[in-house]
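thought: fold this chain, then report.
action: predict
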Amino acid sequence: MTGAEHKQTAIEPRKPLWVRVLPLLLVVAAFAAVFIFGLDEFLSFEMLKNHRKTVMEWYVDNHFVAIISMILIYALVVALSIPGAVWLSLGAGFLTGKYRLGQDIPSGTRFDVIPGHQPIYFHDVGWAALGRLDEVAAETGRSLVDLALSWVIAQPGVTSVLIGCRTTAHVDQAFEAEAAGLGEELIARLSADPDPIED
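observation:
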């Protein structure tokens, strides 16, 4: 073995400990800063309600910056698991009722553009949950999205509610779902174990 070959096969020395733990320390510091400075409160329903007009005016005047900011906020919230009501996506649109068992996927929708997402939601448990939403929607006159949001908001272990937010109407829809809420009986029905799906 030549000297050059020996250099190539030699094991590189380990990086110093502080270099290896620095990324973890930065994540911990960022997570702590969120709560120390009360930044998690800016993601609450109440905060968005109280400042809705200001936020919408800023969005109109700074459309591109708003989009980039949303992407960065999404990455931060997911990376740090920050509690709050974050307006991003709800089941990739599965619980809106636009997808139905045995029917073609609507052209241009998320599951059409990215078919690899279908197995995440298109299964017995998912279709059963959609069926329960259909039943309750028919009885109450509320939309599937409204019921789904109300159910998620009512869960004690949920810290972030992810919904679609392409328009201001989507934001208002979230407010309405929170205000309407769900009674214990409806929460229990929507939380029930799914019945087997028959083809």
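thought: worth noting. Residues 87-191 form one domain.
final: tokens above.
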